[in-house]
Design the sequence.
């Protein structure tokens, strides 16, 4: 799918399918701009269908004699209430009304109400991500025809630069969706590591994969405690992006990489939806998706480390017992009072490793707690950090990408709940505030001098139904926020 600008107006455009954003009360005026010969009959039809151009309304017409031959009107409501995110939603609605149509697609929206670069990038990403379909696991996949050419009609040429980000970012999101959507017998820790190495090879990143022995000699007792209940070997993944020229900033992003989370001996039962726990490597998928995108974008000035301690949480004769005490690579001892709080154990050692690289900032992404889903639902991830600056940077990157992110408190008195009778800390606290104590647990493994943020993506990693630009299933949440954030630190600014 090639997404490009068509700066001259809609009158000259001669593709086959047109998605046209329509404002309430301005229907007639806007239709005048495209055609006069059938405008009156179209207006009559719209009345019959009770189309008022409210947000979320759509009307589709086949036109027998002319270009376009399919017209999709999507309501945008009133101009003063319109947000860029409404353009994303309108794009998704229009794109779904055109599924399976390979014809050249044009999209005409009121770009001038926004920074056209930001609006065009948002809509370009939206069209590609809405039409993504994972066809890997069917013998006879339905041919998923997509428009080869998509033109954003009326966007000024000044937006050309921001359009260049669409393809690398969407390839990163699609990779993340494929990783998360893949079943756990296919996407094993080894497969995740192989994928990481091939991203590194294809996009000029350095790649290091640590095997179990090496992790052992680094003292990663928390991570390895989780891994040892599985027949599959753990793989510790570290990719590095080194920019050409001067390095002014170094950052590390760390992703939870549980290719399956059974819960261990605290087995997931009842309503816990164990069969969905293939998505427990969602954090690592965003990290690798971002790695792919950054390797392609090549932002200047920032060195980026991508880190994943990948393994499975399973049950066998050598699996962790609830009650075991292990020690992490920073020497802290942990009483594992619940084997289902495994993500934080793997992250503990991954964070210590990240700190050893002496970065200016660390961000981790993890499908860490059901409690975060209860608090924020499946459209918003939780953000924990002591740094107001890092919080603001990440929230603006998320806003720019249309991903929901909400700052939550790192209430230090709740550390009380993690006190162990025997060890330095235990891995779970009380039920109430469970997403907060998870964050506080992670904080114990981060050097205080490094600014650090934790993002709990347990909700938005997955959607049961088509939702906005996300088809049902894996969303690839986090890639766009990470890439926008990383690029906002470099000279290669994405428009805000
Ligand atoms: N991977 C889960 C978190 C999760 C749960 C993500 C539901 C998405 C949906 C994590 O490893 C986990 O099991 N967390 C426990 C922690 C508890 C034992 C303190 C949880 O949230 O129930
Ligand atoms: Mn768990
Ligand atoms: Zn988990």
Sequence:
């Amino acid at each position: 799918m090639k997404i490009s600008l068509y700066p001259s107006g809609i009158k000259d455009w001669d593709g086959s399918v047109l998605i046209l954003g329509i404002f309430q009360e301005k229907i007639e005026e806007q239709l005048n701009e495209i055609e006069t010969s059938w405008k009156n009959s179209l207006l009559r039809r719209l009345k019959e269908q009770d189309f008022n151009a409210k947000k979320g309304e759509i009307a589709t017409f086949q036109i027998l004699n002319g270009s376009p031959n399919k017209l999709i009107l999507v309501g945008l409501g009133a101009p003063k209430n319109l947000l860029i995110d409404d353009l994303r939603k309108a794009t998704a609605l229009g794109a779904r009304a055109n599924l399976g149509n390979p014809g050249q697609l044009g999209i005409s929206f009121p770009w001038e109400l926004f920074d056209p670069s930001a609006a065009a990038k948002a809509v370009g990403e939206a069209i590609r991500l809405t039409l993504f379909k994972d066809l890997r696991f069917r013998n006879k996949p339905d041919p998923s025809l997509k428009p080869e050419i998509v033109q954003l009609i009326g966007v000024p040429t000044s937006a050309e630069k921001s359009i260049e980000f669409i393809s690398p970012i969407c390839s990163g999101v699609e990779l993340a969706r494929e990783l998360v959507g893949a079943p756990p017998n296919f996407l094993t820790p080894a497969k995740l590591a192989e994928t990481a190495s091939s991203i590194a090879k294809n996009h000029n990143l350095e790649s290091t994969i640590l095997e179990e022995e090496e992790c052992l000699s680094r003292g990663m007792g928390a991570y390895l405690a989780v891994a040892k209940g599985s027949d599959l070997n753990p793989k510790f993944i570290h990719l590095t992006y080194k920019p050409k020229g001067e390095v002014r900033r170094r950052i590390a992003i760390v992703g939870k990489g549980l290719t399956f989370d059974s819960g261990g001996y605290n087995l997931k039962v009842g309503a816990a939806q164990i069969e969905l726990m293939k998505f427990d490597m969602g954090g690592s998928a965003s990290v690798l998706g971002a790695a792919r995108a950054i390797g392609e974008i090549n932002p200047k000035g920032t060195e980026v480390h991508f880190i994943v301690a990948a393994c499975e949480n399973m049950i066998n004769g050598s699996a962790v017992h609830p009650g075991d005490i292990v020690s992490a690579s920073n020497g802290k001892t942990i009483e594992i009072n619940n084997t289902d709080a495994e993500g934080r154990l793997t992250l503990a050692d991954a964070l210590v490793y990240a700190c050893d690289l002496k970065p200016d900032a660390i961000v981790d992404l993890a499908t860490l707690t059901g409690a975060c889903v209860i608090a924020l639902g499946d459209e918003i991830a939780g953000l924990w950090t002591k740094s107001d600056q890092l919080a603001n940077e990440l929230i603006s990157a998320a806003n720019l990408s249309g991903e929901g992110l909400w700052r939550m408190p790192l209430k230090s008195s709740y550390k009380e709940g993690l006190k162990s009778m025997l060890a330095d800390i235990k891995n779970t606290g009380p039920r109430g505030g469970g997403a907060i104590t998870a964050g506080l647990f992670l904080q114990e493994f981060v050097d205080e001098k490094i600014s650090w943020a934790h993002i709990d993506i347990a909700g938005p990693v997955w959607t049961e139904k088509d939702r906005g630009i996300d088809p049902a299933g894996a969303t690839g949440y986090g890639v766009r926020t990470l890439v926008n954030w990383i690029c906002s630190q470099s000279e290669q600014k994405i428009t805000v």
The mean pLDDT is 96. Residues 2-154 form a domain with the Leucine Aminopeptidase, subunit E; domain 1 fold (CATH 3.40.220.10). The pocket of zinc ion (ligand 3) is lined by residues 258, 261, 280, 342-343 (CB under 6 Å). The chain is about 35% helix and 20% strand.
